[in-house]
From TrEMBL:
Positions of post-translational N6-(pyridoxal phosphate)lysine modification: K46
Species of provenance: Actinacidiphila epipremni
Signal peptide range in chain numbering: none
Name of the featured protein: Pyridoxal phosphate homeostasis protein
Taxon lineage: Bacteria, Bacillati, Actinomycetota, Actinomycetes, Kitasatosporales
Pfam families: Ala_racemase_N
C-alpha cells in the first residue's frame, strides 16, 4: 500500500541516507570551524517521484531541487500542500522561464543576459520575486559558456549587475558544478576555493549576494570546507539515478 504516509521501506532508506549526508555536512563544518547552521542542504529529486518528495518532507527536508522544467512543474504541483521551497538548478531555456517562476523560489543557473530578461518579465507578470544565482563555469574560457552551463568568471560582474537591477528578481549569489575538464578537473577543493574568491569579489559590490551553491554527492565535503552555504545533493540521498543525469 502506498498511502499518505508513503512506503515505509523507502522512508527508512531515505532517512538513513539523509542521516549519512547530515553527518558528512556536520563533519565538514567541524573541520572548517563553521556553524552547521551556515549550510543548507538542498535535496535534488530529479528522476525520483513526487512520493519521494513527500517522504523527504516528512523527514524534515524543506529545500528541494530539479533540473528540468517538464519534470519539476508537475512534481511541484503534486506536492503543493507541503512546506517546500523549490530550486531550479538545470540549464534553462528562455521559453521555460514563465513556467519555472510559478514554482521555483530560486534559480541557480542564470548564465546569460537573455535569460535575465526572460526571468524578469516572467516573474513580474506572475507577481513573484525570484532569488537568482549566477552559474559560474570554472572551465570556460573568457567570455564563453561552459558545457554544463555557466559563464566564465570574467562575465560574472555584468550578469550580477543585470540581475540586481532586474524587476522581479533578486541577486542571491553564485553557483558552480565542479568541472570535469580543464585545470580544475579532479580538484574540487581548488575549484570551490576559486568560487569563494569570486564570491568575495562579488560581495564587495553586492553585499546581499551571500549564497554560494556548490557541492554535490561526491564533493559536498570539500564544498562545505571551502565555504559553501548551499549543497545540492541527489544520489547520496535518493540513490543512483537510472541513466545518470
Ligand atoms: C543532479 C544535480 C545535482 C545532484 O547531483 P548528485 O551527484 O546526484 O548529488 C546537483 N547539481 C546539479 C546542477 C544537478 O544537475
Amino acid at each position: 500500500m502506498n498511502g499518505a504516509a508513503g512506503d515505509p521501506v523507502r522512508g527508512a532508506q531515505l532517512a538513513a541516507n539523509l542521516a549519512r549526508v547530515e553527518e558528512r555536512i556536520a563533519d565538514a563544518c567541524a573541520t572548517a570551524g563553521r556553524d552547521r547552521k551556515e549550510v543548507t542542504l538542498i535535496v535534488v529529486t530529479k528522476t525520483y517521484p513526487a512520493t519521494d518528495v513527500r517522504l523527504l518532507a516528512g523527514l524534515g527536508v524543506r529545500e528541494v531541487a530539479e533540473n528540468r522544467d517538464q519534470e519539476a512543474g508537475p512534481k511541484a504541483e503534486a506536492t503543493a500542500d507541503l512546506p517546500l521551497s523549490w530550486h531550479f538548478v538545470g540549464q534553462l531555456q528562455t521559453n521555460k522561464a514563465r513556467s519555472v517562476v510559478r514554482y521555483a523560489d530560486h534559480v541557480h543557473s542564470v548564465d546569460r543576459l537573455r535569460l535575465v530578461g526572460a526571468l524578469s518579465s516572467a516573474a513580474t507578470a506572475a507577481g513573484r520575486r525570484i532569488g537568482c544565482l549566477v552559474q559560474v563555469a570554472l572551465d570556460a574560457e573568457s567570455g564563453d559558456r561552459g558545457e554544463r552551463g555557466g559563464v566564465a568568471p570574467d562575465a560574472v560582474p555584468a550578469l550580477a549587475d543585470a540581475l540586481a537591477s532586474a524587476p522581479g528578481l533578486r541577486l542571491d549569489g553564485l553557483m558552480t558544478v565542479a568541472p570535469l575538464s580543464g585545470a580544475y578537473a579532479g580538484q574540487p577543493r581548488a575549484a570551490f576555493d576559486r568560487l569563494m574568491e569570486i564570491s568575495s569579489r562579488l560581495r564587495e559590490t553586492h553585499p546581499a549576494a551571500t549564497m554560494v551553491s556548490a557541492g554535490m554527492s561526491q564533493d559536498l565535503d570539500e564544498a562545505v570546507t571551502a565555504g559553501a552555504t548551499h549543497v545540492r545533493v541527489g544520489t547520496a540521498v535518493l540513490g543512483v539515478r537510472p541513466g545518470l543525469r
